[in-house]
Each structure stands twice: as structure tokens, then as C-alpha cells.
Design brief:
The chain is an alpha/beta fold and about 160 residues long. Helix content is about 35%, strand content about 30%. The chain is elongated and about 50 Å long.
Length: about 160
């Protein structure tokens, strides 16, 4: 009887430990967010520097360097750039049309940040630590930021 009670106590402790770990993981911002390409493109700053997971069809693989591709959202003409990094060479033009599920880091960059320099006073410092800060600095000067967004690939699965 004592053995059975001890065994049940161990199981209860393990279940409690597992459920509390899961709660911590759910509140952690480092979790991968499943999103559609349209969601990523609609508000790229919302996903900046977060791990994202998308599905779609490879619509283009760079013929020159082979280090990037575009993923097309099903049923639309929306696509997002994916930088292949360590996966360069694993995709080629024959991969176009292949359905993939992929994960990677969402990256956003302000491409026209030099416009802020032209509208600033010489003594102002604009060392922004994030894309969001750069966008806010440009808005404060009445400038519209042009944002380039892409996914830095970390893993994929061909479907």
C-alpha cells in the first residue's frame, strides 16, 4: 500500500512540474509564432526578431547567388523573402513549385534611414537599437520609413 501511495505521489509531482514548465514556455516571447504571410507583411514590426513559422509554395529561388527564395502564400499573390543562410545550395530552380513549411527569425530593417540623417541636426545622435526605434525617430521628423522584411531560415520541411 505504501509503495502504491509513493508511486502516485511521484506521478503527481511529475505532472505538476510538467504543467508549470509548459506555462512558462507559453508566456515566453521566444516561442515560434505560426502566421500567414499576409499577417507578417501587414505588420512586420509586430513579428520583428521573433521566430515565425509559415507554409507556402516556393515561387522563386535566386539564380545568381542561391542564397534567397520567395515563398508564396496559398491562394494569393503575396510572398515573403527568405534568406537561406546555412541552407544555401539546398534549393535551386527545380525547387520552385515545391510546398514547404519553414521556421526562421523575422527580420525588419529600415532601408531609407539615411533620409533621417539629411533632416537631422548635426548634434543629434540616431543610434537606434531596433527597427521600431528607427521608425519612431523618422516619424518624429515627419518621414515615412521604408521597411524591408524577410525571414532568416532556421529549419524547413518539404511537403
Amino acid at each position: 500500500m505504501l509503495q502504491k501511495s509513493l508511486c502516485m505521489l511521484i506521478v503527481a509531482v511529475l505532472l505538476a512540474a510538467c504543467s508549470s514548465n509548459q506555462t512558462e514556455r507559453v508566456s515566453d516571447d521566444t516561442l515560434t509564432v505560426e502566421a500567414s504571410i499576409s499577417d507578417l507583411l501587414a505588420d512586420p514590426l509586430e513579428f520583428d526578431n521573433r521566430s515565425v513559422k509559415i507554409e507556402g509554395v516556393i515561387s522563386h529561388v535566386c539564380r545568381h547567388s542561391g542564397d534567397k527564395m520567395r515563398i508564396l502564400q496559398d491562394g494569393s499573390d503575396l510572398s515573403i523573402l527568405v534568406m537561406l543562410g546555412d541552407f544555401t545550395g539546398q534549393f535551386d530552380t527545380e525547387s520552385e513549385g515545391m510546398r514547404v513549411s519553414l521556421e526562421g527569425l523575422m527580420v525588419t530593417e529600415v532601408t531609407n534611414f539615411d533620409e533621417l540623417e539629411a533632416h537631422s541636426h548635426e548634434d543629434e545622435d540616431h543610434d537606434c537599437e531596433s527597427t521600431r526605434e528607427a521608425v519612431e525617430a523618422m516619424k518624429a521628423k515627419g518621414l515615412d520609413a521604408t521597411i524591408r522584411s524577410y525571414i532568416a531560415l532556421s529549419q524547413y520541411e518539404a511537403r
